[in-house]
Amino acid sequence: MMPDVDFSKGDGVVTVVAQDARTGAVLMVAHADREALERTVATGEMHYRSRTRGLWHKGATSGNVQRVVSLTADCDRDTVLARVIPAGPACHTGTATCFGPEDAARRASDVLGRLDQLIADRAATSADESISYTHRLLRDRNLRLKKLGEECAELVMACTEGDRGRAAEEGADLLYHTLVALRAVGISLEDLCVELARRGKS
Question: Which of 54, 113, 158, 200 lies at 20 to 30 Å from 171 by C-alpha?
C-alpha cells in the first residue's frame, strides 16, 4: 500500500530508510519520489530516485533486490521506513549494510538462510535416500514429523534442566527439522520471515 507521504517538503522526494525485516538492521538510506514509490508498490521490490541515476530499481543489475514487507511514513510524512527482505548486500561496496560490518543478527540470519537454501536444493533434486538425511526427511512425512516432535521434547528437557550447551544443540536441531517440515509443505524461511514481520515480531 502506498504510504501517506508529503512530497512537497523535499521538492518532490522523501527520505527512505531501508531496514531488514528479519534482523532489524538498517541497510541503507536513499530517496524516492512518487513514481519510485508507485513502482515499489506495483512490483513489490524497492525503487528509488537518485539525482545522478534517476529512477532506479534496487538490484536490477546486481540481483540484490529488496522485497518489500511494508512501507510506513513517519509522523512528519517526509520519511518512509521500508521494511524489506534483501536478496543480497545493500551497499555498493559489497557489505550487507551501508553502515559498517555485519552484526551478529545479520550473520545469524545468513546462517539460517544458507541452511534453508540447502534444504531447498535437496527438495529440488532426486537422490538415493541413503545419500542424504534431508532427502529422507523430505520424502517421509511420518519420519520428519516424528523427529520434529522428538527434537521439541529434547529442547524442552534441556531448558528445564538449565543446560545451556545442550539447549543450544537441541535448539539447532529443532530449527533444522522445523525448516525441513515447513519446506515439505511449500514454506520457505523467507515466507516465515515475512509472516513474522507482518506481525511486528521480527
Answer: 200
Cβ(74)–Cβ(9) below 8 Å: no
The residues, ordered by sequence, that sit 6+ positions from 142 with a Cβ below 8 Å of its Cβ are none
Note the Cα 200 to chain centre separation in Å. 13
Distance (Å, rounded) from C-alpha 40 to C-alpha 5? 14
Residue 123 CB-half CA count within 13 A = 17
Question: Structure pTM?
Answer: 0.57
Q: Give the separation between CA 132 and CA 43, rounded to whole angstroms.
A: 38
| Same domain flag for 120 and 37 | no
- DSSP per residue over 96-146, as a string? SSSSSS--HHHHHHHHHHHHHHHHHHHHHS---TTT-HHHHHHH-HHHHHH
Q: What is the pLDDT of residues 139-179, one digit of tens each?
A: 999 999 999 999 999 999 999 999 999 999 999 999 999 99
CA 7 to CA 15: how far, in whole Å? Answer: 10
**Number of domains, the chain:** 2
Round to whole Å and give the CA distance between 41 and 36.
9
- Per the CB < 8 A criterion, the answer to whether 139 and 129 are in contact is yes
114 and 188, same domain (yes or no): yes
- Residue 177 lies in domain: 104-199
